[in-house]
Design goal:
The chain has six helices and eight strands. The chain is an alpha/beta fold. The protein has an eight-stranded mixed sheet.
Length: 237
């Protein structure tokens, strides 16, 4: 409620909405007390000018991607390197264990989005393994999966559209240059538009069999950009 009170001071909260307590939101946050202005700061005195998360856009993520900017080392805020592509988490982990990931690379894990996994699992283990191998200072990781709040390094997730839907991340090949510019909020696959169109035409959705609840989920779940919620879609899709 202390945070809500601060937001209300800037007229950023609709206090008229009801709560499960039976009273309006404004009744609750008005009664709150902020005990330490250095913990829950006034908007005029922020801890940093932007939030900890950044949204990136570009031809690799037309509908967006997410990175925890506050956990990225300064030297990795802008990075360009060759792609090293994996279609699942296990294969990447094996490559890390065999020291096959070279400094300067941009690791891509795809087909782990809401439909692809299915369920959009968190990619915390690969980021931890890269950090443990001392590669978080020189290697970026891009995925249509997600990250937990404990992720660190240039770990870019929630890439949308996801690979299983034929998003651009499905078209990346080993050696393609990927440019990341977090301050400018951009994520670019440095491949000519004509070549990407050729790859798109040749791309085939991986054949996967699901039954029961998982079949319904894969058919109806939305993309990460809208929260990966069950919505439209049909079992025939």
């Amino acid at each position: 409620m202390g945070v809500m009170k601060r937001l209300a001071e800037a007229k950023l909260v609709d206090g008229s909405v009801p709560t499960v307590s039976g009273v309006r939101m404004e009744v609750q946050h008005r009664a709150a007390t902020v005990c330490d202005d250095d913990v829950i700061r006034p908007l005029a005195n922020p801890y940093r000018p932007t939030g900890g998360l950044a949204m990136l856009f570009g031809n690799l993520a037309p509908k967006g991607a997410v990175v925890k900017e506050s956990a990225v080392l300064p030297q990795m805020l802008v990075h360009e390197g060759p792609a090293v592509v994996f279609d699942d988490e296990a294969t990447l982990m094996e490559a890390i264990e065999k020291d096959q990931i070279k400094p300067g690379s941009v690791v891509v894990i795809r087909y782990v989005g809401p439909k692809g996994a299915p369920g959009m699992p968190e990619m915390l283990t690969p980021t931890s393994a890269l950090a443990g191998a001392g590669l978080d200072q020189s290697v970026a990781l891009i995925t249509d999966g997600r990250f937990s709040g404990a992720s660190r390094g240039a770990s870019i997730g929630h890439v949308a559209p996801e690979a299983l839907e034929g998003g651009p991340i499905a078209l990346v090949q080993n050696g393609d240059l990927i440019s990341i510019d977090i301050p400018k909020r951009s994520l670019t696959l440095k491949v000519a538009d004509g070549e990407l169109e050729r790859r798109k035409t040749a791309w085939q959705r991986p054949a996967r069999e699901y039954s029961g609840v998982l079949r319904r989920y894969v058919a109806c779940v939305s993309g990460a950009e809208t929260g990966a919620v069950l919505g439209g879609g049909t079992l025939a899709s």
